């Protein structure tokens, strides 16, 4: 029985791009874009076993996934210190998916930035105005080992603003002294623990457009102060709203902040529909729309190098009874082994999907595959953007061979 999905938004213009971009995508690699990019697009940039065993395909064999998922070219001694893309590759590591810590070490040469999810900023009544919490999670030994594995790697923990009420946001947005104070407290923490910067998750606090300019000014003040002190700021920004709605982060925002912020981590996963109905987690036309809504003109592709395309290493298991539940690698592998489902290729969303039934009813599952990830990595190269992986501990180990 063919799987049924709600219709995707009308991406007619974007799909014209996709016809050109994806018509070139074969079983393993797209056609060369330019002579200068041959090393990026050549099948030689993938581990030979992916090519030999035809693992990057729209018709993957479940037994191949079960057999190969936990071994990589590093285990085979096949590849050296190389990456497919010349742009930033950031990977998030979360304490609750701690496989990511080991993978960050093992594949350190594949990344430019590692962002452990450690820190939170809180307000206080002291002269400093703010305090950084979560430092108990900082693993100095792991940080040191990462630097040994890749001397150029930047360690930039994610920083959330927690416990801020409306007056606290107003002060931060509208009083530069508060923005300077927050930057100073962050900088002192980074210096103490010998870290390189932060991934700042703050833009999502924009609930009313009237505060857009004020918040933008605050972020610029923070990032400029951080840069002056020798630290990087990467800003997390929302994707396109979907359904032809503009994203809350606009071209004007990017242009205003680009000289101050090191990079922009765009959350091109969890399509807005994901929580309410079965469907692609990150439909490729929507991913393109999210990038083009920030830097729309292809002739300005050089600006896009600061954009990091969000790449999910997790999936969703959707059922009518329980809605959408996040799916990590262990549960995914258990489902493949138990139910032996048939993976089908969603040619519009460019993801694999399968169905299974248990005592609670029918489930529809989207989880990344080598093929879906390979297309998104190729897209990042064609669009001149970097990558941001959420998160290293949720996916299959051989996903990292694609980088």
From TrEMBL:
GO terms for cellular component: endomembrane system. GO terms for biological process: carbohydrate metabolic process. Residues 87-403 form the GH18 domain. GO terms for molecular function: chitin binding; oligosaccharide binding. It comes from the Eukaryota. SUPFAM superfamilies: (Trans)glycosidases. CDD domains: GH18_SI-CLP. Belongs to the glycosyl hydrolase 18 family. This is Chitinase domain-containing protein 1. It comes from Ramazzottius varieornatus (Water bear). The gene is RvY_13671-1.
């Amino acid at each position: 029985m063919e799987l049924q999905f709600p219709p995707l938004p009308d991406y007619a213009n974007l799909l014209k791009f996709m016809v050109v971009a994806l018509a070139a995508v074969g079983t393993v690699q797209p056609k060369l874009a330019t002579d200068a990019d041959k090393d990026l697009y050549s099948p030689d940039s993938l581990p030979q076993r992916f090519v030999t065993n035809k693992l990057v395909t729209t018709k993957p064999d479940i037994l191949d996934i079960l057999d190969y998922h936990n071994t990589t070219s590093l285990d085979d001694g096949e590849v050296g210190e190389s990456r497919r893309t010349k742009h930033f590759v950031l990977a998030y590591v979360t304490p609750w998916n701690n496989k990511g810590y080991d993978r960050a070490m093992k594949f350190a040469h594949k990344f430019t930035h590692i962002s452990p999810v450690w820190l939170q900023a809180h307000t206080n009544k002291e002269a400093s105005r703010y305090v950084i919490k979560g430092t108990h999670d900082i693993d100095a030994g792991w940080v040191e080992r990462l630097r040994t594995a890749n001397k150029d790697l930047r360690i930039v923990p994610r920083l959330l603003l927690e416990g801020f009420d409306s007056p606290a946001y107003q002060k931060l947005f509208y009083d530069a002294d508060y923005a300077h104070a927050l930057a100073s407290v962050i900088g002192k923490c980074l210096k103490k623990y010998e870290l390189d910067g932060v991934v700042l998750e703050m833009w999502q606090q924009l609930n009313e457009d009237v505060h857009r300019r004020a918040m933008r000014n605050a972020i610029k003040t923070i990032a400029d102060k951080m840069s002056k002190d020798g630290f990087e700021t990467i800003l997390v920004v929302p994707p396109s709203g979907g359904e032809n709605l503009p994203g809350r982060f606009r071209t004007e925002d990017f242009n205003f902040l680009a000289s101050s912020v090191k990079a922009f981590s765009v959350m091109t996963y969890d399509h807005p529909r994901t929580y309410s109905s079965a469907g692609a987690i990150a439909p490729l036309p929507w991913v393109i729309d999210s990038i083009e809504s920030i830097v729309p003109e292809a002739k300005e592709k050089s600006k896009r190098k600061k954009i990091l395309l969000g790449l999910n290493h997790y999936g969703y298991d959707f059922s009518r009874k329980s809605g959408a539940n996040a799916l990590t690698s262990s549960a995914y592998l258990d489902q493949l082994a138990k139910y032996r489902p048939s993976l089908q290729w969603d040619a519009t969303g460019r993801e694999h999907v399968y169905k299974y039934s248990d005592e609670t009813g029918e489930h529809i599952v989207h989880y990344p595959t080598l093929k879906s990830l390979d297309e998104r990595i190729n897209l990042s190269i064609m669009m001149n953007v970097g990558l941001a992986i959420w998160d290293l501990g949720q996916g299959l180990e051989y996903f990292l061979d694609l980088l």
